[in-house]
Amino acid sequence: MMNMFIPPEYEVVRNADLCIGCRVCERQCANEVHKYDKDLGKMIADSTKCVNCHRCVCMCPTHALKIVKSDDTYKLNYNWPVRAMNEVYRQAATGGVLLSSMGNPTENPIYFNKILVNASQVTNPPIDPLREPMETTVYLGKKDVEIKRDAQGRLKDTLPPQLRLTTPIMFSAMSYGSISYNAHESLARAAEELGIFYNTGEGGLHTDFYKYGKNTIVQVASGRFGVHEQYLKTAAAIEIKMGQGAKPGIGGHLPGMKISDDVSKTRMIPKGVDAISPAPHHDIYSIEDLRQLIYSLKEATAYTKPVIVKVAAVHNVAAIASGIARSGADIIAIDGFRGGTGAAPTRIRDNVGIPVELALAQVDERLRQEGIRDSVSIVVGGSIHSSSDVVKAIALGADACYIATAAVMALGCHLCRSCHAGKCNWGIATQRPDLVKRLNPDMGKERLVNLVHAWTHEIQEMMGGMGINSIEALRGNRLMLRGVGLNETELRILGIKHAGE
Amino acid sequence: MKRIYVNEEWCLGCHLCEYECMFANSGLDEMFKLKGRTNEFIPRIKVEGEDGNDIHFAVNCRHCTNAICVKSCIAGALSKDGEGVVRIDRDKCVGCFTCVLVCPFGAIMPAPDGKAAQKCALCTDNIMGEPNCVKHCPNNAIVFEER
Ligand code: SF4
Ligand code: SF4
Ligand code: SF4
Ligand code: SF4
Questions:
Q1: Which segments of chain B have a pLDDT < 70?
Q2: CB under 8 Å to A194, separation ≥6 — which residues?
Q3: Among A183, A223, A185, residue whose Cα is nearest residue A207
Q4: Which atom of ligand 3 is nearest to the CA of B18?
């Protein structure tokens, strides 16, 4: 039986006047869209194979290429948009669960865009960050310690271990396996140069990267891939992954195709066999169980490293966070429903979880009410688009932000959302050596460092405008925020006033 | 002197450098004007490694310290300038191609008209001024630096 043809959503358009037939596009497209046709004596393209990653567009020396939204359409139907129809056709043909990657692209509200930031006028003057000190350093960890004195009455240092960040931005978890060796190296080296942290995700830590240990957060996830004593001891902090914003409530699935020799060694699993992380940690069914794991990890590392617990933003996240804060965790990471992923079932990615802005506001509020806000730091992620999102997140109560989508974009990602196919033309979400090679870590590191520097400058500008000279003074400072176009309930949940109030 | 060095580890075999070289030496003001005319030019940089190979690297003139091409030229057409760049004087070249035979890198070749040899002069002999191949290499697989 022949499968029903599904017209491509995007079309590759070549300007014949500009194309010089260099075949660079053909060599650079791992999806084999472009080809030089001998009979016609010119380049042709098969748009049905195109994933719209823009590699060819960026590489074409004469800018002869563009990718356009196809105007081929079914009968227009508000109730049955093309995407919904095509998904039915696809499932009718395969009988399978639809897979997607990167973050939720649907039209749910982006609250960061409906929040505006204040600036000083007349009464408390703004500060010029180029002339006056502007502190962006942040320490993550427990701050609520008992003050103890020795026999001589001198203060004893009872502060639990902290992570010191030069700027309130970290690279969030992306595993070696889901991303390439070169992507990993770029992140690790950038984190080292910037004085921040990157996160191994659940894929273990390649021995080549142990040297970046003091800027590495290692993850312990439900699959426990690559977790061993040295792994824990090498890191600056340990993150227990309970959930991920892109796919709350489900585990992970790394296709066997991506399990190369090195990935298999690093993860301590067989080569070429799919790596499944279960949905739950099979030893965690309560906050008490979580506490046990937290203290096992602390014990294993002699109480020298902070432990982060990462959860997806879900409906009762505030209560969950309260439990986590009491379980001994030093840092809570909250991942919003727009967070990225290397692969997730489409329905889960697009329909499960809540916006991180709302989750953050509620968690911060709840922990304050319960008087335990200082016993944890809060890190949020899940589509932080820019420095202004960082500023807004901090004013809503976060200590720092996790970025991953923006980070891979700095490495070249064009959000084609086909990571799960393993043929990333930018050398990021792939293990194919010829593709991995396309990401030179010297360049990748440089671009990540540039991005974070640029954001840090902007954060300083915005803080200066508000007359604030340290991140500390911005944290939880919701008076600096106003909502636009938000209803009473949304404003109440965010804990901010409407613009004009 | 600043030379072009190859980081073969990062070469993708994309051949962009060859086209950028062709353009730089074509005298054209827009690259797309190479359309239909690419056979009129021969790039002075050559990417080694067939499509599909694991290894690629781009080779052009090394501007050797004791350039064997300069020594072997029967017409005195090849010389090393004050900067160390090996240059060819088209007007002196008699087209014997002894240099083509002796260059260990295959970096000097007959020009498209077949009447003289041609070689890379690090884009100092065209309007680019700095190696155009290096400027457009997407992965820093060739770099222009002092070592
Ligand atoms: S890369 Fe551009 S100029 Fe080269 S063949 Fe493709 S479309 Fe034509
Ligand atoms: S898949 Fe990427 S490289 Fe290939 S044609 Fe489409 S946009 Fe170009
Ligand atoms: S442009 Fe760079 S990567 Fe491409 S073939 Fe030339 S040297 Fe290699
Ligand atoms: S043409 Fe060949 S021999 Fe002459 S300087 Fe260049 S690399 Fe050396």
A1: none
A2: A166, A167, A448, A449, A452, A453
A3: A185
A4: 6
Q: Please, which pLDDT band fits residue A157 given cuts at 50, 70 and 90?
A: confident
Spatial separation of the C-alpha atoms in residues A212 and A8, rounded to whole Å: 43
Nearest to A206 by CA among A425, A421, A431: A431
- Tell me what ipTM this predicted complex has: 0.93
pLDDT in tens, A295-316: 999 999 999 999 999 999 999 9
User: Which residues are within 8 A (CB) of A14 and not within 5 positions of it... i.e. 6 or more apart?
Assistant: A43, A45, A64, A65
Measured from CB, residues less than 6 Å from any atom of ligand 1 are A 14, 19-25, 43, 60, 62, 64-65
The predicted model scores a pTM of 0.94
The helix (run of H) or strand (run of E) holding residue A44 is: strand A42-45
B135–chain A Cβ distance below 8 A for any pair: no
Q: Judge: B35–A17 Cβ closer than 8 Å, yes or no.
A: yes
What residues of chain A, 60 to 89, have a C-beta less than 8 Å from chain B? Answer: 61-62, 64
What percent of chain A shows pLDDT beyond 70? 100
**Could you identify the atom of ligand 1 that is nearest to the CA of residue B19?**
4
Answer whether residue A391 shows pLDDT above 70: yes
Nearest CB to B15; choose among A27, A438, A440 = A27
Q: Could you tell me if A42 lies within 8 Å of chain B, comparing CB atoms?
A: no
Residue A135 pairs with which residues in a beta bridge? A470
**Residue A58: beta bridge partners?**
none
- Nearest C-alpha neighbor of A421 from the set A27, A101, A10, A105: A101
Output the residue whose Cα is nearest ligand 3's atom 6. B17
What's the pLDDT tens digit per position in B66-81? Answer: 999 999 999 999 999 9
C-alpha of B65 from chain center: 17
Distance CA A227, CA A235 (A): 11
